[in-house]
Known about the structure:
alpha+beta; 17 helices; elongated; two-stranded antiparallel sheet
Amino acid sequence: xxxxxxxxxxxxxxxxxxxxxxxxxxxxxCPKWLFDRMVSLGSQMIEIIVEEYGPxxxxxxxxxxxxxxxxxxxxxxxxxxxxxxxxxxxALKQAIKGKEKSLGIFICGGKGKTSxxxxxEINAWGEQLSLPESEVKNLVYNSKTSAKVDSxxxxxxxxxxxxxxxxxxxxxxxxxxxxxxxENTTARRYHWYSDNIKDIxxxxxxxxxxxxxxxxxxxxxxxxxxxxxxxxxxxSNNNYSSLIKDINIIRKYATKNSKMVSFQNSGEQLVFxxxxxxxxxxxxxxxxxxxxxxxxxxxxxxxxxRKPENYEKILITEGVGPxxxxxxxLVSEVIYGAKPSYQDPARYSFAxxxxxxxxxxxxxxxxxxxxxxxxxxxxxxxxxxxxxxxxLKKINT
Length: 397
């Protein structure tokens, strides 16, 4: 997998539906000569793409995790390094600096502390472009909510440290964010695209590609729909005392030595649950010390007091984080039987079509069309014939 060719990236992209990519976590800085080259070449490629296809096409293609990866490879960065995300985003942001309005493309945020400035940058562009206040608020909302979804609803062991928000003058937007897992020294990238989202808390990503699968509480999965509904009902229809009673049941019985637990389910039926079941036991809440969860109790009180009308409202409530979401998920499953998905939403990249037609044939027409797209762009950039030939070879190998 380490020497994955660009053509293989295109081949495996054909049937991808959602967007998470996993890479090795690297360190060090990008050499100035390489970054400057990426900025220069990236600037030309963006201008050609916008001229030929329009700004919305660029925004849509950035939301494709494999196209994003291929672009970084063409611009000379290592395809399988976590730094590709941060360096490529920075290079693209620098490449369009001063030309944003003419291109109709805007890039906000970035790595570390820069990611926290994303809302301010969106607001600043909103002022310069005289965008309607409602449109600007919507862009900021989607930026913040996408980050909260990937940190709270997809609990896969990756801590977000990079968030970039791309949008066009026509209101199309893409989010590219990345998290790190220090235990297995890998990074995972999450992609979003505005036109693909029907429900921001239900499978909102634009593509999935990964080499690593792990235990994960995925509350964005369709299979977790009952958990999302039950969690909402718990805080909207019950009082705080009733919720804490449920929490205390879990505090008392959810221990490493628990084999079987029994209690009255909503006062109607005696229910027996085996908390040590392999598929359930790993759940993080089981291993958390609820006796020191005063902050959690405070947030649960706020939710019960506000009675959010849907799961999205729960998520965006100030103070709600991964622990609150896990607690509601556990109560939904143990007390009310609404089991969430524990499947990692990432998919193995080589499972999406192959040359031997396993599990199904590659869409050759789309495959060739994608490669030809890059060929056309490279032919039109201002570079020597030798440089163009080098870039074309990257695509053909």
